[in-house]
Amino acid sequence: MQQRGQWSGRLGFILAAAGSAIGLGNLWKFPYMTHHNEGGAFVLVYIGAVLLVGLPIMAAEVLLGRRARRNPVGTFLALGEGRPGGKVWGGLGFLGVSAGFIILSYYSVVAGWTLHYIVLAIQGKLASLAMDPSALSTHFSEGFLADGTQQVSYHLVFMAATVGAVYFGVKGGIERVAKVLMPLLFAILLFLVIYSATTDGFSPAMKFLFRPNFGDLTTSSILEAVGQAFFSLSLGMGAMLTYGSYMRKDSSIPRSVVEICFLDSLMGILACVIMFSIIFTFDLEVSQSATILFTTLPTVLIQLPLGSFVLTLFFVLVAFAALTSTVSLMEVVSSYAIDELGWTRQRATLTMGGVIAVFGVLSALSFGANATLSGVNLFGKESSLGVFSSLDYLAANWLLPLGGLLIALFVGWIMSPGDVREELEEGHRPLGRQFGFLRFTLRFVAPIAVGAILFSVIFLGAEYQ
């Protein structure tokens, strides 16, 4: 096996892992879910779910990776040997690699849309389109989405940027990109938060976000908060496990995962401040579709002072958030080829990246450019998004929660408590009651919570997309 790369230190790991977790879901999905569930009380339940479900499963993923120093498949093959289930656990690792492959193939398509909008902004065309809501909507749906050449081109460009970051390794590529993009991302976000404070909707936005009204909470709201906490942290897809495999032994896992969860939640809350300020300023209709970022928001951002500049900055922010996420997905797949197939990093990254890019063309053409692909319906769900929607449904509703559930069960029930404690205490002070609490959440709380997500999908028809 090739010598395994390592992060230069804990900061490199935290920035890369936080970049993996922080993505389009933070900038669009969390604000939408919070608005849909009436604000403050939902946020508190979400934070509780992060602490009781998200953080324990993330700690489990990271400790598995560092314990085995392998990709997801190799990790479960190595750690499952001699334990109940034996090599069958290797299937859990393959589930993670498959999820990374599938998600990256269609996520890069949406990420490519941000590049198109940045180009339009630089050319001065986005501002003029945004001044006319119908013109922008027509451009996006009938012009851009239905243009197969543009869809495929921007998808391939974003995949090339992703492959480029992973090609140069852990320190030279992934960590370097994270150390540049993450501070820039937070700087842009902070600027937009300060800017949103000047809008008329800022005060009602803050009241809506931070004044809890528990009377508005429903069972569905609680379940959605748990689901959002799980999906927001990039759990169940092998990304945290893979990044954990490059973690130094003198770095603290408990401290690191707390900081990653904090940064991810902070990003979501700050995005809410920005989005709600806009929503309440312009009495905006909030859509469940991610296309709100590309159709509705530009038409309101352009109306603000310095609107053209703010509009450009916003899409740079979205592109940065997307790239840090796609890089982690690419690394999951590449690490499998490096460890299990014995390929060099360069061969693994270029080959796997090329295969994913080609597979992603199916999603790129499923928005109207190809009638056959647009009409694909793999799971009996009514949708006009064809292959794209089908893959998104498969990953979000099955692969990720199933992966997270099995990871919690493996660390909580299959691994010995001594091995788990030993790995958690490497680079950290001895754990007392904290270890008992973490073990309890992994054995009972997290499996029940994630199991509830799967139950809602199977029996209640819920969808987490």
Poorly predicted runs of 5 or more residues: none
Please outline the major beta sheet.
Answer: none
What structural category characterises the helix and strand content?
Answer: mainly alpha
Q: What is the assembly state of the chains in this entry?
A: single chain
What's the number of domains? 1
| Fraction in beta strands | under 5%
Share of residues in helices: over 70%
Please write the string of helix (H) and strand (E) elements: HHHHHHHHHHHHHHHHHHHH
What value does the average pLDDT take? 92
Helix segment tally: 20
User: Any idea of the CATH topology?
Assistant: Amino acid/polyamine transporter I
According to DSSP, the number of beta strands is 0
Give the radius of gyration.
Answer: 21 Å
CATH class: Mainly Alpha
Taken from the alpha-carbon principal axes, the silhouette is globular
First-residue to last-residue Cα separation? 38 Å
Q: Architecture, CATH level 2?
A: Up-down Bundle
Secondary structure layout:
Layout: H1 10-21, H2 24-36, H3 40-68, H4 72-80, H5 90-123, H6 125-130, H7 133-144, H8 148-167, H9 170-196, H10 202-210, H11 219-232, H12 239-244, H13 253-282, H14 296-301, H15 307-340, H16 345-364, H17 371-374, H18 386-414, H19 417-425, H20 433-459
What features would you describe in this structure?
With 465 residues, the protein is mainly α. It has a single domain, classed as Amino acid/polyamine transporter I (Up-down Bundle). The chain is 75% helix and 0% strand. The chain is built from 20 helices and no strands. Helix 1 crosses helix 15, helix 10 packs across helix 13 and helix 15 crosses helix 16. The chain starts with 9 loop residues before the first helix and ends in a 6-residue tail after the last helix. The mean pLDDT is 92.
